[in-house]
Amino acid sequence: MNHKIWCRRADELLQKMTLEEKIGMIHGAQLFQTAGVERLGIPPLKMSDGPMGVRQEFEAASWKSVGYSDDYVTYLPCNSAIASTWNRKIAYDIGSVLGEEARGRGKDIILAPGINIKRSPLCGRSFEYFSEDPYLAGELAAAYIHGVQLWDVAACVKHFAANNQETERLWVDVDIDEEALRQIYFPAFYDAVKKGGVYAVMGAYNRVYGEHCCQSEFLLNQVLRKEWGFDGVIVSDWGGVHDTEAAANSQLDIEMSVTDDFDDYFMARPLLEKIKSGEVSEDTVNQKVKRILLLMLRLHMLEDAETMDSGKTGSRAGIPAGRQRKSGSYNTPEHRHKALEAARESIVLLKNKKRQLPLKPKQQRRILLIGENAQQQHANGGGSAEIKALYEISPLMGLKSRLGGNAEIAFAQGYCGKAENPQEQQKTNWQEKSLENGGGTQQKSTQAGTVHADAAAQEPESQEQESTEKRRKLREQAVRLATSYDTVIFVGGLDHTYDCEGNDRADMVLPYEQDLLIQQLLAVRSDLIIVMLAGSPVQMQAWIDKADTVVWSWYAGMEGGNALADVLLGKVNPSGKLPESFYKTHTDCSAHAVGTFADEKTVSYREGCEVGYRYLDNHQIEPEFCFGHGLSYTDFAYSDARLDFEKKQVLCTLENTGDYDGSEVVQVYVRKKGAKLFQELKGFAKVFVKAQEKAEVSVSLEEMQREDADVAYCIGSSSRDIRLMIIPDR
Ligand code: BGC
Fold this sequence. Notes:
By secondary structure, the protein is α/β, with parallel strands linked by helices. Helix 14 links the parallel strand 12 (366-370) and strand 13 (408-412). It starts with a helix and ends with a strand. The site of beta-D-glucopyranose has 7 residues, from loops.
């Protein structure tokens, strides 16, 4: 479609609109919807959260769920899980499921994916984001966006920019070197715009260089529009706007918020008045409305320009007469299958020292599963990423249904969460109150993992004692049972009390006294299989040296339990790789060791570009499990590294020397002599190789140049398992 024709169409519509009508289009008229202009056939813009599926319907002006029975959806693996697949095709497929379901639910913009860099493992929204590495995050985001937008739905990447913590999230000012901003925190957004062609961007709650991101001259005008040429729509985070003039004069297009006083939003009546009094020019609004109309044309929401030109007008408002807008669909068997495929590829085999996995037939007869996460449902938590899942297969259900009636699968709870989950209590109005108290807290507790900074969420002492006592009993029971089964699998980790919007963890310690339980279980069962299920890394020091077998699963969507069973039973050979460093403890992370996390209203990113493995590698700090790590049931041998400067490719031969077919992620890290960073990921390819067979692998490296002096191309199975290195002759 010709952009010029669209622009003309948008201009024509704009000329017919009153100022009031224009203003109606640039702010929320409902919690997830703007106003349309019915007389001109302009529909409202309908939005919904992602990223793990399309969120349930809320009432127009209150955060009460309408309680429909038809808004259950496909619950997708979280973005950390998608990133763990290191598979662009999976990212595309999951984006496509989300786009199709969003359209199926009648949405125009899906508020996903979240692509902020994981600066700290404590960030409560880590599970919504891809990686600590800008290249990995950008590659996956671009593929994901293409998938979403295939369906005449806009992806909306969030939150631009440097939104890396929940503590004081509405006000915290990020003090950062521009170099780090540009090299670490911008690239995924740049790739979303340039490679992904994203139609919408959401501003962040926090401030950067003193300016609120949603009305920032630097971020929106200078970087996004001028430097990157972004011509899509910029949406504020819900309640991220703080000033009428600043917002109007910035490149922000739509103001959204969490309150129901829609006419009093900064870009509503207050702006109308300022335009009428001449304080703000009407042209600022015209530009915003024009971009919104262009978005509607892109999504085929308006009678399109081709039809106009050929004179065939008169279609129903909002439905294009030329090319029919895609209708979408939700809860299809194909979507569930895509969710299963992604979940399978996302599981990371952290440790398999005695090759205990996959379980041999005689280990499959009598299995004991211990731990609340074996049966816990996670979809309906986490903040705005909550999902009303059509169903959610737990690890217990997955294993039981996979093995059937000939196996005995027992369950012992082993540990329990809080006596009462404060998130559960506050569920109906969580978002309504989300602008209070700076909009974000940090938890206080350590060992017991039960106390929140938010006074309302604190567990009273009596309840704490009750939980401690209950856990002691559950522990004793589990340890007693553990000796009488062929196989014992512990499934623990975190839940959305910890991985949650508006809330950062205080440390990486496992909550609910799980360390103690695991230690006691290992004392009686040295062959304990440990499965960690969480949205962000946990501290494992208390038991990791004694544990031989450790599997990592993220919140892996509705088919997560089946995927886990497939991996444990060897139906699927694990191929996930960590998209972030698993620190031994959070103080090994540069955000905490060098930077400050949140100091009243300012956070200093003093670590600069040394984020994640970039810091660990520079300072030779051992992580528990490094960036890019993930084992397989088979072994891969790397040989014959080559460079092709014309095609900008690094090549090698990969041989599967074991007995299982499997996929390997071939990772290319570039080391430059004299550079500030030891190495950086610059390319990767996921390759399937049958047992005992070989494959030729080519990894594209956009930045590869023959002239580059003193560059080493390192090909590895993880950031710390480099198998081949080439230093080209000059
Ligand atoms: C979150 C956004 C979300 C929005 C709408 C905000 O609290 O930060 O990610 O899209 O709410 O629910």
